[in-house]
Amino acid sequence: MSLKKLMTVVGCVGFVSAIAFGCSSTTTNNNPTDDGGGAGTDSGKKDSGGGGVDTGAGEGGGDLCTPPATVTFTKTWRAPHAHQNACTQANIDLFRKVCLGQQSDGGAACKAFTGTAAGKACEECIIPSTGTALGALLVTGGFVSPNVAGCVAIAQGTVADGAGCASASLFLSECRAVACGACSKDPATTTEMINACDTAADQGACSKESTAAGCLDALQDAGGAAGNCLSGTDFDSTYSAIVPIFCLSDGSGDGGTDAPADAADGG
Length: 267
Known about the structure:
Elements: H1 3-7, E1 11-12, H2 89-99, H3 108-114, H4 117-126, E2 137-140, E3 143-146, H5 148-156, H6 165-179, H7 181-185, H8 191-203, H9 207-212, H10 215-222, H11 224-229, H12 235-247, H13 261-264
Antiparallel strand pairs: 1-3, 2-3
Helix pairs in contact: 2-3, 2-12, 5-6, 6-8
């Protein structure tokens, strides 16, 4: 799997209570059973694959999704938080289902889930609303992407300084956030458009950062703990690989209990 295939996987923030953003996409309906790679209902978590995706120029916000030729930003390592026994596997799956992407119930199921102590603890691990440490998902405008850099740092024991490939990965994310910041905040932007903007930035304004982050390919080939962070092929499978490394309870009781049945049913 190439670097571009792995990292151009973003999804809509949806109704996460810690974040005041949503995003509009006519293709999103949050079917959690779709892996994005075959037949079935569109989950709305799009991987552009870097190939020929229309940025939507001239279609309401598309011009904002053409990244500038150059960007200026200060490369800053932001450490992930340590592993937390914050979520059961059921709650990790439920958060993905009811709190990310467009929801027909207006976010009622997400609010029900995060309104419980267990649901709120799980949400705070995945996307912290306070502090400086990063969680399992990174937020840019109305979109989220898996924190590959933080996962690699946890796996390699480089949380303090992000030495090696972890920081290279995060710096690419930071560059993309600057290059495609206006695109990510536009309510007309779809997941396809933001993925395409990221890919265009990789080839232009963020080309140096993209080249440096190519070290992820070697980590994936090597396997091991860091390779597990890179085992996904789209948003859902990368989410499923990374979030447990940050948040899955080891069974000691800190992960809480599952949310009420009405939340589990999606409202």
